[in-house]
Amino acid sequence: VKVGGIRYLVPTPISESRSYFEGMRWIHRTARDERNNPRWVERMKNPDLPKRDSIMIWDALAKEILDAYHNTGRAISKKIEYHRICDQNRAFAHYRRTK
Predict the structure, then answer these.
(1) How far apart are CA 85 and CA 28, in angstroms?
(2) How far apart are CA 55 and CA 69, in angstroms?
(3) β-pair partners for 7
(4) What does the pLDDT profile of the chain (99 residues) look like in tens digits?
(5) CA distances to 18, 73, 81, 89, 98 from 61, in Å
(6) 1, 7 in Cβ contact below 8 A?
(7) For a disulfide at 92, which of 8, 17, 25, 77, Cβ 3.0-4.6 Å?
(8) What is the pLDDT of residue 93?
(9) DSSP summary character for residue 61
(10) pTM for the whole thing?
(11) What is the spatial distance between Cα 46 and Cα 40, in angstroms, rounded to a whole number?
């Protein structure tokens, strides 16, 4: 929301279906991300090594879903980060109702 030339990040409630969508999207993106791949880290340390196959998507998705079940992993850390940002910006919630 832009008020007086300043942009504020205003937390707004989202529907249950939207929250499921966001969770699935975060899990999928973190599973797809190459930086989570240990072979990528090894390649960055030693760029002269031959290129190997990366982790298959179903293995990465299974690992990320198990991490989410145990409240660990990158998708959960993203959720916690979003909640932290919303808590910090709760003072701007009254701007949500104004235009």
Answers:
(1) 22
(2) 21
(3) 2
(4) 566 676 777 777 889 999 999 999 999 988 887 665 666 666 677 777 666 666 788 888 999 899 999 999 888 988 898 888 888 877 777 766 655
(5) 20, 11, 21, 32, 41
(6) yes
(7) 8
(8) 72
(9) H
(10) 0.66
(11) 10
**Structure tokens belonging to residue 46:** 């030693």
Between CA 89 and CA 11 the distance in angstroms is: 7
Q: How distant is the alpha carbon of residue 24 from its chain centre?
A: 10
Question: Residue 66: exposed, middle, or buried by beta-carbon count in 10 A (0-12, 13-18, 19+)?
Answer: exposed
Locus of tokens 């409240």: 71
Buried b (16+ CB within 10 A) or exposed e, 18-48: eeeeeeeebbeebbeeeebeeeeeebeeeee
Q: Quick one: tokens of 91?
A: 């003072």
